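Q: Structure for this?
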Amino acid sequence: MSSSMSASSQLNKTVRSHYLSLPQGGLCQVTYVWIDGSGEGLRSKTRTMESEPSGIEDIPEWIFDGSSTSQARDTNSDMFLIPVHMFRDPFILDPNKLVLCEVLKYDRQPADTNHRHACKKIMEKVKDFHPWFGIEQEYTLLGADGHPYAWPSKGFPKPQGPYYCGVGADRAFGRDIVECHYKACMYAGIKISGSNAEVMPAQWEFQVGPCEGIETGDHLWMARFLLHRVCEDFGVIATLDPKPMAGNWNGAGCHTNFSTDATRAEGGLEHIEKTIEKLRPSHAEHIRLSDPHGGQDNQRRLTGLHETSSIHEFSAAVANRAVSVRIPRQVAQDKRGYLEDRRPAANCDPYAVTTAIARTCLLEEEEEGDILSDLEINELE
Ligand code: ADP
Ligand code: MN
Ligand code: MN
Ligand code: MN
């Protein structure tokens, strides 16, 4: 066995498929998925239901041990899992389900890393704008040894250039994972809209959306769960680290494309430009809110090199990839469409990112005040 492959990926998958094909007697396996205390990691556990749930309302709340996920102390460790979005399970197949959950503390207040709670309220407030988001999730495959997948164990692959959208054994590293993940997303019911090989070898991207409002985070988080789970079968690791390799290698982002009824309508470019002027003064706040470590992680990526802008300054332009916010060429030509916020890093929480965009771009100041006191999220001030 190569040291870059995990042990469990070497188990006999033909034997596995015999057991998985056994009938399950009308029962249903429901796997609850949630975001842990790191704000980046995902956890899951499975229970049996007597019959197939027909919707999210059929799936009961559950609890888990928050002291084992950095979410609670030993002495008060039970936390609530609140099912919020149901998907089909692409691993053990119909009728089994994957269920994304919100996490609540013992007092039923949202857990510290539960950014969905605030996101849902803001999205409810701005729903008449019909905000759409499309997210480009970049990630890097690593062997079990933590080195980028299929990179020479000593030294480096050839410099960047041939790998973006590349084809061939010397430039596409790990395509099996990309293809299997894509199918798994489609089966599950995730709005995956594309994929491509990235600039750094062993780095890839998939896109989710456009999704409206709260759906964005739900679909992206479950797509991330599927990615980690598919990778597990192949014995490799997907990292969302914003800059897995220092030096002359691209980092990994989570470009967030955004539009509303107004920007999509004829002459919407004018609204896109106005939106950009709203984003400009809240640059530092967006950088902080969209990073699980307050901007520290993204600092390694947003250097102004490798198709990024400086973390310290806001900039915007048409068709330019070295800016904070890009207006795609097609959008400038059509004079309508969407903008691309290129700042969020691969490990951002899409609930936090879409909340920040909706607040800054769509809420009036007094509404913002209201909702913040409503939510008691003063740290957002
Ligand atoms: P790039 O050229 O930046 O690599 P991609 O093709 O990877 O662009 O991604 C474009 C993203 O824009 C997709 O996630 C897609 O869902 C999203 N998108 C397309 N139209 C809209 C829209 N009207 N509003 C929001 N997002 C959109
Ligand atoms: Mn892209
Ligand atoms: Mn990309
Ligand atoms: Mn992009």
